[in-house]
Amino acid sequence: MRWDSLSLRSQVTIVVLLFWMIMQGIAVYEDLAQIQSANDYEMDQRGGGFLAEALPILAETPLASRKDVANRFTNFERQIIVSDQNAADAVEDGENHDTEAKWIYEQLRAMDIPVVELSATDRHIKPAGGAEGTFVNFRAPQKAGEKATVDRGATVGVFSTRLSGDDQWYNFYLLMSAKTFWPVFFQKSIDSLFALVLLIVLAGIIGRVMAPLGDLASNAERFGRGETTGALQPKGSVDVRDTIISFNRMEKRIAHMLSYQVAMLRSLGHDLKGPLARLRDLTEEIKPESAQEQVSNKLSTVESFVHSVEEFTRNVQQDKTTSRIDLASLLEVLVDEQVEAGHDASISIEAESIVPGRYNALTRVFRNLIENAIKYGVNVHVTVSESQDQAVVFVDDDGPGIRDEDIEEAFEPFQRLEADGPGSGLGLAIVRTIVIDHGGTVSLSNREGGGLRATVSLPKETSDQPT
After folding, report:
1. Which positions ≥6 away from 206 have C-beta within 8 Å?
2. Does 336 score more than 80 pLDDT?
3. Prior bond of 413 cis (ω within 30°)
4. pLDDT band with cut points at 50, 70 and 90 for residue 305
5. Across the chain, which distance is largest between two alpha carbons, in Å?
6. What pTM, to 2 d.p., does this model score?
7. Of the CATH numbers 3.20.20.70, 3.30.565.10, 3.40.50.12780, 3.90.1030.10, which one belongs to the domain with range 320-459?
8. Strand residues in 399-451 grouped as ranges (E)
């Protein structure tokens, strides 16, 4: 979906949502950094303190007794295991803390504790045997029968070191706080969740702010289809109200101008009738008869023109109110009329389309197109279809068609492609005027197999149109 096809409300909401997501991403990154920083600090302080407490005592204890002395430091939070292995390097799925190990090593050396090397890592505790929260399943064994419950997601820090002159590894195990992200994230993201609530509220406010613009767009569309909309109630912000007021004025002026033009043409036709009737009477006194016939023919042409003007103003004026029109049903009636009159006419309905429109006006449109097809093509086939949000009607005949360069001229008022034939040249002009007045389009095209196709597209009924 293209950005410029979205409504202003959607665009503003998306921008605010993206901004919130970016801020939330920054907050998540900060939370992760804080969690990691807190874990590193705990490794430094508690782990370093544990080693600083026990190692001086172990260093002064004879080698044979160091294992027993190490066991005395064991409780539910910490434990020392004397082993031939470096337990920190052997931990599976652990996170190495080389920086913290180096810092603790330097601190111990500064205290004159004879450490040779030091490794540090940590890992999440996975309770063993299905006993949730039981601190038993890392390398440090527990005393017989001793169990300690820990928080879900807690970690154990493992520090392994050797003392000068001793080949044994002293593996320090320390129960540490939870390193799981989500509990900490929810605790630290109350402000972000609150911002999300505000975003939802903001989306509702944006909807209310944009509602008058939506009403304005709907009125403009309906007015463009020739519907009587009436003045739109100004509401919203001051600039939106000013826009609505300006639109109301424009709509009123356009409607007044169109009414004036149609009325002027109708008045012109009416005013010319009297003088033409008197001239018709005077032609009877003209001698010789040849001159009388010539004048009479000229008067007939002028009278035909006046009649065409009246017909045009009568057919393009808006009649009644807009209603829901079933195109298929309307066209079936018109095709049946031609069949009953003995003409070759048929219809195919590929889609049931409801359009908003003025029934009498659309009836004139399709009756004109169907009669033209019968007149110039002998037979006619009507197809009712649809394309996206448009109802489409094809009127096909098997006549001679129209030269491509003359197709557009056929829609001009008083243009007749067959000068010797009957008619005023207003039929297609009236058709196009009415179709455009309904927000649609009409076009002519030559068919590949011969004949002419008239295509009419009309907007289908939508939820914002009156029912």
Report:
1. 9, 12, 13
2. yes
3. no
4. low
5. 155
6. 0.45
7. 3.30.565.10
8. 441-446
